[in-house]
Amino acid sequence: MAQRRVGLWMIGACGGVSATTALGLAALTRGLTPTTGLVTALPRLAALDLDEPAAFVVGGHDVRQATLLSAVRELHRRSNVFDERTISACAPDLEAWSANVRPGVSFRPNAALAALADRPDVRAVPSPKAAVELVQRDLRAFQQAHKLDQLVVVNAASTEPPFEPGPECDAADRLAAALEKSTTALPTSTLYAYAAIDAGFPYVNLTPSRGASLPAIEGLARARGVPLAGQDLKTGETLLKSVLAPMFARRNLRVHSWVGHNILGNRDGQVLNDPENKASKVRSKDALLAELLGYRPQSLVSIEYVESLDDWKTAWDHVHFEGFLGTKMTLQFTWQGCDSLLAAPLVLDVARLSLLAQRRGESGTMGHLACFFKSPVGVTEHDFGKQFEMLELYAGG
Amino acid sequence: MAQRRVGLWMIGACGGVSATTALGLAALTRGLTPTTGLVTALPRLAALDLDEPAAFVVGGHDVRQATLLSAVRELHRRSNVFDERTISACAPDLEAWSANVRPGVSFRPNAALAALADRPDVRAVPSPKAAVELVQRDLRAFQQAHKLDQLVVVNAASTEPPFEPGPECDAADRLAAALEKSTTALPTSTLYAYAAIDAGFPYVNLTPSRGASLPAIEGLARARGVPLAGQDLKTGETLLKSVLAPMFARRNLRVHSWVGHNILGNRDGQVLNDPENKASKVRSKDALLAELLGYRPQSLVSIEYVESLDDWKTAWDHVHFEGFLGTKMTLQFTWQGCDSLLAAPLVLDVARLSLLAQRRGESGTMGHLACFFKSPVGVTEHDFGKQFEMLELYAGG
Amino acid sequence: MAQRRVGLWMIGACGGVSATTALGLAALTRGLTPTTGLVTALPRLAALDLDEPAAFVVGGHDVRQATLLSAVRELHRRSNVFDERTISACAPDLEAWSANVRPGVSFRPNAALAALADRPDVRAVPSPKAAVELVQRDLRAFQQAHKLDQLVVVNAASTEPPFEPGPECDAADRLAAALEKSTTALPTSTLYAYAAIDAGFPYVNLTPSRGASLPAIEGLARARGVPLAGQDLKTGETLLKSVLAPMFARRNLRVHSWVGHNILGNRDGQVLNDPENKASKVRSKDALLAELLGYRPQSLVSIEYVESLDDWKTAWDHVHFEGFLGTKMTLQFTWQGCDSLLAAPLVLDVARLSLLAQRRGESGTMGHLACFFKSPVGVTEHDFGKQFEMLELYAGG
Amino acid sequence: MAQRRVGLWMIGACGGVSATTALGLAALTRGLTPTTGLVTALPRLAALDLDEPAAFVVGGHDVRQATLLSAVRELHRRSNVFDERTISACAPDLEAWSANVRPGVSFRPNAALAALADRPDVRAVPSPKAAVELVQRDLRAFQQAHKLDQLVVVNAASTEPPFEPGPECDAADRLAAALEKSTTALPTSTLYAYAAIDAGFPYVNLTPSRGASLPAIEGLARARGVPLAGQDLKTGETLLKSVLAPMFARRNLRVHSWVGHNILGNRDGQVLNDPENKASKVRSKDALLAELLGYRPQSLVSIEYVESLDDWKTAWDHVHFEGFLGTKMTLQFTWQGCDSLLAAPLVLDVARLSLLAQRRGESGTMGHLACFFKSPVGVTEHDFGKQFEMLELYAGG
Ligand SMILES: NC(=O)c1ccc[n+]([C@@H]2O[C@H](COP(=O)([O-])OP(=O)(O)OC[C@H]3O[C@@H](n4cnc5c(N)ncnc54)[C@H](O)[C@@H]3O)[C@@H](O)[C@H]2O)c1
Ligand SMILES: NC(=O)c1ccc[n+]([C@@H]2O[C@H](COP(=O)([O-])OP(=O)(O)OC[C@H]3O[C@@H](n4cnc5c(N)ncnc54)[C@H](O)[C@@H]3O)[C@@H](O)[C@H]2O)c1
Ligand SMILES: NC(=O)c1ccc[n+]([C@@H]2O[C@H](COP(=O)([O-])OP(=O)(O)OC[C@H]3O[C@@H](n4cnc5c(N)ncnc54)[C@H](O)[C@@H]3O)[C@@H](O)[C@H]2O)c1
Ligand SMILES: NC(=O)c1ccc[n+]([C@@H]2O[C@H](COP(=O)([O-])OP(=O)(O)OC[C@H]3O[C@@H](n4cnc5c(N)ncnc54)[C@H](O)[C@@H]3O)[C@@H](O)[C@H]2O)c1
Ligand code: NA
Ligand code: NA
Fold this sequence. Notes:
Chains A, B, C, D: GO terms for molecular function: inositol-3-phosphate synthase activity. The structure is a homotetramer. The first copy, chain A, is α/β, with parallel strands linked by helices. Chain A folds into 2 domains: 6-232 and 341-394, Rossmann fold (3-Layer(aba) Sandwich), CATH 3.40.50; 237-338, Dihydrodipicolinate Reductase, domain 2, CATH 3.30.360.10. Helices cover 42% and strands 18% of the residues of chain A. The first copy, chain A, has helices at 16-29, 68-79, 84-98, 111-116, 128-145, 172-180, 188-198, 215-224, 237-250, 267-272, 275-286, 288-293, 339-359, 384-396; strands at 6-11, 56-62, 101-103, 150-155, 203-205, 227-230, 254-264, 298-305, 312-322, 328-338, 364-365. In chain A, the strands form 2 sheets. The first copy, chain A, has a 7-stranded parallel β-sheet with strand order 3-2-1-4-5-6-11, with helices on both faces. In chain A, strands 8-7-9-10 form a 4-stranded mixed β-sheet. The first copy, chain A, is globular, with a radius of gyration of 20 Å. Chain A starts with 5 loop residues before the first strand and ends with a helix. Chains A and B meet through helix 1, helix 9, strand 10, helix 13 and helix 14 of A and helix 1, helix 9, strand 10, helix 13 and helix 14 of B. The complex binds nicotinamide-adenine-dinucleotide (NAD) (4 copies) and sodium ion (2 copies). One nicotinamide-adenine-dinucleotide binds at residues 11-12, 14-17, 61-64, 104, 106, 113, 116, 156-159, 188, 206-208, 232-233, 235, 266-268, 339-340, 342-343 of chain D.
């Protein structure tokens, strides 16, 4: 059988996560880097028929004037990641893929998001529907140009402010109707998701933006036979919460308070510095403790932009808990992780698993991907160990 | 049916762990404290027919001149745990139970251990066999005096130095033969274990001492129809390792080094300050990383005696790991736990579960107790989540 | 010469800091505790003729229904500080001194502060002037009743919101005039300060409230020949900043960012949980970096109320700095201090030093007390080492 | 006046500290890097007539087969410091200076040190005297070849084991006599120091090796009119101790225990992994607490080799102290510093200050350099602030 050719379309293609993903794909294909960080490279998932790195072509949307290569170089310079040799060797791939990056759409962005959009050809759209059509045209053109067997769309764009879904978000047909009206208040991320799924492409929301976590989108995915997943990759503090909170629960230790303080200095951090956009992230990080512990401890999460940290997100967590005979004790941890590098291999993981799911004929929410997300849509299990068992079951069963 | 009466016999009865266990039993019986910290109080174990706190009578061996109450008061004063009200209310129980504490045996202790034994009636024994008989006499007398339906023996004595088991430890009959000879070099903990099991009492080794983790002891337990468990309660740093290492493994993050630095100031710490005895503890803490990760990262564990900390064990762990594209990142944690308070509820847990196992007719190693131990005898699974599932299965299945 | 008798009048007398100060005075007088934590007990200050603990009588104002003893007991129970023996022995003193606590005045408090005032006899006042007179009447009555040679007034009341001083705060006579008008918007702390100083009593502001840091108050102090000091005792994170920032400066290491995250659970924390009141504290903590470093690094300070911590204030600081050849490095620290216990000995220190200053005939701002305060009024030196030298010079010179 | 030309001769020239120093000199000369990290670049030392970076020529001794450039590249690759652009631009200087590096002498090294010496031309010497003469020949040849006005010698070689100085170390003449005998047991570092000073070159010991901290060496320096300084650059944990311990002392807070745990992965760490050599370092780090506090708290210092950390030394310190009314509190810090980058600018500082001192006609121990050293020879003051004032006084006075 001929090797499959598949496309990875990234919304926010020139952002830190996307550019790192592209560099990683190129480096893996060229054998320049080990598969460290890739969950789908684990022996226990070996039975799955996943696409090799070499099978992928990269494209995407962005609203900023940047290329994959310039984004990689910026990360190298500012955050002191990657090495010169890998960048130089992969530069031709990054350059070629940058040609596939199209101007994004931005539907009524707030100020923080509008400030980013310095790409002159970002498209003004009269109605949500027009945005959807523009996106679909780009996706199909990409698929045809590169003769792709399949295409997966991932949202790695900047975090949007939270929004309260109205009744039009309850069912696919209502949403379709609402898209026609120029007055409809929908986040851009809903439009991207609608476009991809409606056109038959699996869709994964890597961000805390809530625009794809709607009954209407889920319904559309089932109707179109398309697999779907999200929301917000679980890369740092929340990952730790999802393994530590079950430990306290199993030992019957009572968590009184859990304080998490995050600082980071990349563009994502800059956008999150806007209180509106930050609200989405904090919400996404904070929900799981009550589910994991069975009660609601006092919990505080803060995220602050500290420029000098660049892509190195540092989290300090302070957990105050009570043991036997009323004794209060403390666990503190500090996590110093490079965000884009933690996220990128997971982007490849969920892309590969989505393409496989589509080939297997699965549609709707991919519950077995819960272990990848802070707020796994459609799954109430937040224990990372149990979430991972769901993936192993899928792989091995 | 009449209420069962059961005995909890603690070797090292006047130590921090044992005295706290006794205070906890009294406080639970009197309704003075919640069940926080007790695993067996979790709803998911509710189906098990476990003995209520009120069913327990406490006794034990020790070699020091101390009582349960004096040990509790010392912890209160030095480590600032417990409160005056609870101590006063439970003092009568502690006094009554102290009458059940008998002089321990100490077979060729090293200097650090010999230094502890200031109780004038500690018994000099001509042969291992004589020690076993003395212990059995004490256990049976306690059972009769208190009309106990069952009795469980736990070893909460000071950590012994490591020892290399000879061929006499390979089978129960060989061990029986060796006990007769006065020249036999066996740790005291082997003698206590032999005595308890041979007399038909379930036995749990809460310490890093290896004397009960022998094929001969396991064989004896099966022969006598007695349940058995150990070794070394998992209360702090190792507990965290057993939930964090699987997280790194599942995310395919490569751990380069894991450094753990423990400081503590209680009597256990003082004994561990002796390099010989420390070796047992370090060994017990260090084994699991290779099993959990599938490879052996550089790993360092140190334990140091810092007097001012008293019972507050503080651990600093530094985990250096590599993610995608060769990027090195760091997780650090600090654990500030009060050792006796972390251990005591688990003593009650394993005691209750051992008594139940005996009633159920189980014998030999209780694999379902693996989640309680740093080096669970007879179990290779070190993932705390999976170990806990074994317990849930036992409870719910 | 007969022993002097001196009074310590605390505004906020039943708060954590004040009650601990009172317990400490009683315990020192009875020889029940060492002088640890008392700066004025250091050998290098021995030349100063300071009042002995036994010389002090305690009184104060508060708006809550509480006594010194109840406040001490609450700290003992909730924050696990003090011991039963000390409390019992000192209870008679605390009871006696509680009789000297008078209802406070509260001039147009905001909601957070008004919520505290459950003492039924808190006095409604028609004008600022009336408040000042009430306070002065209480101070003089106390002095006469106890035949005090001297009396020092310290403000240990809840943090007020920041306020922007108007022109009436520029000079003592303008302030005097303004006090007459009922429409004047002045914080309560200005009224207390005015009352004390106008009546000839040294005054120290231990809080971040800005009401006593005004040219008008300073002018009044000089006019009345009264020594003055403030603002905000330097007990934790800021103390560390004032020794660490000079280290970075002297090594020419460039601090890019300094993030400080504070959590605490006492009543002060509860009041600070109100964003308005919090603003005063954050301001008070944040000013010194630019002065110490000579440039302004990115700096974030947050304070959050975490109930379970009670009086144990925990601060995590993350300092990101650049060394030679552009290399970024990190210092992090965690401070776990019990706030009232850190503050109380300093209250005694500044009280003793103020009484001495008055005897020496000094008036106006006591610059030599800068080392005690986060925002030392009238002093630009923030290097703790240099501030301390000012005190040593005063003592030894 | 013509520009001075000065030489910097580094023993251990191809080690991390030395190579970084050389790169820094080149980068400063070329204007490629700011003076961050250089104490002598501070405005408050501007009055001193110090040599500009461009005035320096670099040479040295080493026993390993390596060049300055290979050492720099290794640091870049393994420790992720420096950037490609700076290295390339400075490569010509590093290459030229490498030609000045001569084979070192190694007198009876222990196994750990002997293992390093893979340079084939390392010189076997029949007696200490012969070693001294070899070294002096190299120094003079370097001075002549480059027409240097002055030359300073710094020891940046691997840490030696501690040694107990015999009576021959008490006076310069006794030492001279001892050098003649082939049986004399002297550390290599004594020979280097003797050679440099005897030949009239200022000498600075940057290492914990004790070989230059001898009355005989001090006597020789005064006799030859040569300035001298050492021992062990104060770059990390000890620097922090020297600012934090005075803070505890000034607040009369009683430090019960101070635990410092250091991990590092460079060659220095590898040498220190040998228990013999480690002893020197631990001794050097541990002495100052008693001096600073006025009493001896329990203190533990450990240093461990953790390969993956490379040049990133990480220290965790736990300080347990008592405040008022017996309350125990905790300060913890984590220091993540890149060792060579912290040390290198200080090497330039002490070199510049030594050359100046010689020009000023000073000889013997330079007490005003105490702020640079962990164990400042001849100075009992360990308070960093006060040590720095000594330097300011020297500069400004
Ligand atoms: N890095 C992580 O560990 C991590 C983890 C979980 C989630 N996330 C989320 O992933 C997203 C990307 O993170 P990042 O660090 O790459 O951020 P980034 O700011 O570097 O990249 C986001 C990109 O999205 C682009 N963009 C913004 N609006 C767009 C639009 N309407 N259409 C097309 N492109 C648009 C921006 O121009 C930018 O290039 C964020 O939402 C972040 O919260 C990141
Ligand atoms: N506290 C924890 O969290 C924890 C966790 C795991 C394991 N452990 C282990 O539990 C054991 C007890 O810890 P602890 O903190 O109570 O120590 P401890 O020193 O307070 O108590 C040990 C007691 O054993 C007694 N003892 C010593 N030799 C004896 C002998 N031959 N016969 C009878 N009694 C003897 C001692 O006199 C002492 O009273 C230690 O081995 C420790 O390593 C403790
Ligand atoms: N504890 C520390 O380390 C520390 C350090 C620096 C500054 N401070 C400041 O000291 C002050 C006291 O702190 P605390 O922990 O004791 O707080 P607290 O809340 O325990 O005590 C404050 C007391 O002031 C009383 N009060 C409020 N308004 C009053 C009024 N108008 N008149 C009279 N009394 C009034 C309250 O009823 C309360 O009893 C706060 O402003 C705090 O920020 C504390
Ligand atoms: N880096 C720091 O922050 C720091 C701070 C204080 C002190 N120090 C000390 O500085 C010294 C150098 O540290 P480093 O990190 O550069 O170590 P390194 O191991 O990288 O360099 C030491 C060099 O000395 C050479 N050497 C060994 N024996 C020699 C001999 N007899 N003659 C000539 N050369 C010899 C080695 O070959 C090596 O190249 C160590 O003693 C270290 O403890 C370093
Ligand atoms: Na780099
Ligand atoms: Na207590």
